[in-house]
Amino acid sequence: MRATILGWSAFSGLILGLFAGLMLFALVVIGGELAPNVLARLNGRVRVVVSIFSFVVLPVAGAVLGWLEGRLKLQ
Length: 75
Prior knowledge:
Oligomer: single chain
Number of strands: 0
Strand content: under 5%
Helix content: over 70%
Number of domains: 1
Structural class: mainly alpha
Distance between the termini: 13 Å
Number of helices: 2
């Protein structure tokens, strides 16, 4: 029972982190399309950094926070 609660809490945090990452990535892509002159030189580099942050860092952080929330539920 304990492992199930921790697992589902971590999974839900991962999904929420992925949603936040998708929104961040979409904002960068839309911003790059609306203002191409502003990000002309940094376009490729910014998208790589934002995609790594969006699809790796935010979901992992969400999973860790979800796991911590699951531990609080169990106390």
